[in-house]
Design brief:
Layout: H1 3-29, H2 40-45, H3 53-73, H4 80-113, H5 130-133, H6 136-196, H7 202-222, H8 227-256, H9 259-266, H10 270-353, H11 361-377, E1 381-386, E2 391-394, H12 396-402, H13 406-409, H14 423-436, E3 445-451, E4 457-469, E5 472-481, H15 483-524, E6 526-532, E7 537-540, H16 542-547, H17 559-565, H18 568-583, E8 588-595, E9 601-612, E10 618-627, H19 629-675, H20 682-707, E11 715-718, H21 719-730, E12 738-744, E13 750-753, H22 755-773, E14 778-789, H23 791-796, E15 805-814, H24 821-826, H25 844-854, E16 858-863, E17 869-876, H26 896-901
Parallel strand pairs: 12-14
Antiparallel strand pairs: 1-2, 1-5, 3-4, 4-5, 6-7, 6-10, 8-9, 9-10, 11-13, 14-15, 15-17, 16-17
Amino acid sequence: MGLIGQLNKIAMLAAAVALSLAIFALDLALPLGVAGGIPYVAAILLGFWFPSRFQIFFITALACALTGLGYLLSPAGGIAWIVLVNRGLALFAIVATGYLLYLAKVRTETAESIPAETTDGWAELTVNPFKVVGIVGPIASFVVLLTILGINIWITRVTEEASQWIAQTHKVQAKLGDLKSMLQDAETGQRGYLLTGKKEYLAPFDLAVRGINTSISRLALTTADNPSQQRRIANLKAPIAEKIRELRQTIALRRSQGMDAAVTVVRTDLGQRLMQKIRVVIEDMKAEEAGLLTARQERFEGMRHAALLADFVAVLFVIGLSLGIVLKFRSFLAFRRQADRELNSALKSAEAANHEKSNLLSQLGDREERVRAIVETVADGIITIDEHGVIRTLNPAAERLFGYTAGEAAGRNVKMLMPKADHDQHDGYIDAYKTTGSGQIIGSGREVTGLRKDGSQFPMDLSISRMEANGKLHFTGVARDISGRKAAEERLHQLTHDLEKLVEERTQELRESERFLARAQEIAHLGSWTLHVPSGKTKWSDEQFRIYGLDLSETETSFAMFQELLHPEDRTRVVGVVNDALSGKAPYNCEYRIIRPDGEVRYIHAQGEFSGTLSGEPEIMAGTVYDITDLKRAEEKILQTQKMESLGSLAGGMAHDINNMLLPIINLTIASIETLPADAPERSNLSVVVTAAERVKSLVRKVLAFSRQESAGREKLDIYEIIRINLDLLRSTVPSTIAIVDDLDPDAGCIHANGGQVASILLNLVSNATHAMESQPGKLSISLAGVNLDPGALRAHAMGTLLPGSYARLTVSDTGKGMTPEVRERIFDPFFTTKDVGKGTGMGLSMVYGIVTDYGGALDVESAPGKGTKVHIYFPLAAPGAAEVAVAAGPQSISESEQKHGANPTY
């Protein structure tokens, strides 16, 4: 080869290597699956101009290695199975293209080594290699692949940008929620301080005020690219500052001048107007962000679908290209088989020529030389043996295949080329053929194991034919090394196994994820659902079935069934909210009540969002439901407690003033009585005044007990003994038409309390129950037991003010007329009574409420019209072994006066 040929060899190899490395660098710079491995085919196609077969093999191996490295090292992206198929097809296309070029090079070299006049058929081997796979197809394929690659790069960048915008919108929405929450925290702290005067409420107020300015600054930075949001933030700063000043002013007035001065400022409604203005601005900002979020999500989804379509088109194109290569390869194999048939025909002609006349010997010699040239240049190994299995000839390909030279192998048994385990089987084949004249190995190909000179074994395809020369039987074997094919099959099998294992693992992970999600929803009492708008069909999570009290295995859900479960008073409103969400007027976010199949009413908070079709019409709605019944009950309990505390403060102040006025009245009246003669008629009138004043004083004590401003001495008491003794005293006061049933547990435990106060509690409850039955036949039940309350029981009875622990529960129930919900809500209000004028002051249950809450206990009332009333009182139990409180204990039994005047039922 001349200097120009050497330079051409180096230049073409360098160009192919440079192109492969450039494709590899692009593969690493893009997400996995975008570049793929198909572009390496372009580097392989440069092999048309390679002078040697080694260069074709080298560049093919390099392209396969870079394809595998690109799969392992490039960043994540794309769809896993598409990426895997893409790489597999790429390896197939690279190997197939390289193999075609390799065979084309062999053909060219063979054709150049055979004289043109030997056979007309072999002249076709000199055809330009471009005609084997075509020149237009590879170039067009490479251009299409580059186009798909560019589209994928653009879609990837646009998708990443849309994802960043969506994240920013979520961030703005979260900051708006934080700002609104901090304003509400500031208001909550101010209200708590105004109502109680406790400085503990100022801590959340100060924390919220400090966080508001920081939140506004961060919100301004986050929305710096949005002029309209910047204007709203500017409009938001003034009312927020004014609102904070108003809150600080009321706190200062409460601290310096008292509640009345602070309430005067609150009643101006300035704070309410400012808060409303702030809410309007925040809602406007949320609405704009929601619109931006929808647009950005639609763009993101569009780009994602486009990326999926591009990947799908790329895979289809790769499949088409691979099919084209396969078809070309099949065409080449057909040509090869035709050449083999011609070779066999030539060999047979050579055998027949031995019997020709001497004038044909020269022609036969020429034919033998031509056949020898073909045999020596063919890529497969050809071995000839006699009927005894002795090797006669090896072509060069067989020498390379087994590692023996023709001289080393000639005269030795062919069993040297096969493993020892196959020796007996080989002899059996030859003996059977010589005996019967037929054998399964003749005329067919099979896979066997070859043995090289160095002792290594390899798989090969072996085809055997027979011939007779001079009355002797000979066999010709054509062997082809299939190690590469076997390795490829093994790799394909391993890849298939790994893929199946990966699919199984991902499926298991998905099942685990679904179980974790269901468990998380069960713990959080949070259900999820989807609604197919056109059909009205819905799909609920297991937790939503539990929230709605439905059986998962027997219920099919739909929007119509959901409407049936809604509380009749809420049904129209909720359907309207859904319709507003469908029309885009407002997001779906509402609270409503449901009626379970067992009749229980539950409060639900639901929210969701729609996803539209390509036409823009809403099709799927998805969302969550949260059972807020316990939260509603706790809020009602807190409001009741706050109301009672406010009324207690007011009643306590009035009671002190009345007490101060009664003191001179009683003292001066008694002094006047003592100065009068014993028979003076005025003494009787003044005694009436003293008696009335004493009754007022008793009423004042009850008011002070309700307001907790007058504490009585407490000691460790056995509640069973207190209830039992006082119940015995009360039996005589209950009408005979009412049956008394008691169930008192002697082991109920001990409490820290005042015996007289506990007796008053029992007296009021029994008197109220007796009054509720209005002298009609009925049953009065009194029970006492020790109970342990866990968090679930506290939530069930809406007693969130109690701590989990041990309590003594006193229950008084009657079969009277019961109470309406409106009356039940007011029974603890001071001076509220349902009795006729002159029969009660309305302070009985108010006093009970004040005493029980002062002990750290709680009350729970169950009542309905016509179903009687049941009152549960929970007293905290004293710790075992606790020291007794030795302070002035009140009386532990009900006095005759209290039996007559102390009870004051309120319902």
